[in-house]
Amino acid sequence: MQWKPIKGKRPPGDPEFDRLRPAAILDALVRTLAHRWVHGRPLCPLDWKERLTSGMPQLFPFEPEVGNGWVWLIAAAANHLSVVDTCNDMRTHELKEKYGTLRWDISSIEFHQEVDEYTSFVDRLSGYICEDCGAPGAIQSLKGWDRCVCHKHAVR
Length: 156
Hints:
By secondary structure, the chain is of the alpha+beta class.
């Protein structure tokens, strides 16, 4: 499998992305791939949303509103964020797809720069991972909606 950056809807000089550290982005990607392959061939468990909310009820008080392809991205990020959250007070307010990428709104009593950066990495990486199956993807307009999909799921 080869990952190639494909231009999405964001302009090349996106200031939010430009401030992200390349080493940290790669760390987020490595964690995501490790979670994807942890149980052998990557098949998404049908109950992954329930597992996530029951396993981390403080961080996920409700089920994410995203497709199955981002399960590994979210699981890897949640695992990392639970380590960073020493006060155990982090809470997700929104976890959804918007304009083809993941939007994750998290709050905490203490501000964590690492959490802010990490959720930005996850948001950016989601624009290259098919929301339906987790394969390499690109943001495309489908029936008036921007979605990140692979070639297989880019049915117009």
